[in-house]
Amino acid sequence: MRKTLVAANWKMFKTPAESTAFLTSFYPLIKSNATTEVILFPSMTSLPALVDAARGKSVEVGSQCMHWLDEGAYTGETSPTMLTAIGATHVLIGHSERRRYFNETDARVNLKLKAALAHGLTPIVCIGEHSEERERNLTANVLKLQLSVALEGIERSALGPLVIAYEPVWAIGSGHNATPAVAEDAHEIIRDHLVSEAGPEIAATTRILYGGSVKPDNIAEITRMENIDGALVGGASLDPVCFSQIIANVTPHPGV
Asked: Residue ranges per domain, the chain?
């Protein structure tokens, strides 16, 4: 079965001291959790401190972005070797804000996914449609294209660690999440397309997260859907009590 996963994307918030203080308050609230994997994605400056603070705890820590090369003259970038050297275990790839503001194209998502897998980092690849694409009934086309390009040239045998996050871009930060039925439809499109891109076994075991205005009062219904395996949480993950409530309210898949 696919173990539920809930990830916190803190974006450009929290200093190192604030990040470790969050963990001090947050961990006692969720340490008895055994059904949901929890990952924190702090800003780059907080990453080393949070990795150290999380050692020995059932919380993992990842990076919000990375370059695809191991080294080079790329001012301001961080390589996969740098992330693994400090103990990061996961990386977000292709978040809608990275695509919108920093030119993270589908082709670059593919390069970063290859690098993450080669270096043993668990990738969470974000895909999703904008409001105008949904209004034009292009959701399936957009999701399939983003996924196909992301997986291009990658052997199926390497895709075991892959996690996908569906971000309806029109819902992010809007306070209006997709209904569970709408989210499930998109997740089903993604999983069905994974069958053709990666085979039925990978499609059946790959976790697909929902990301779009997730809150404590909607996570249970969202994760009750068959193809939704957790959530990528933005603003609601910045408060330790709120984020712990999201984790507590998750509906785990049967058998987990």
From this structure: 4-249
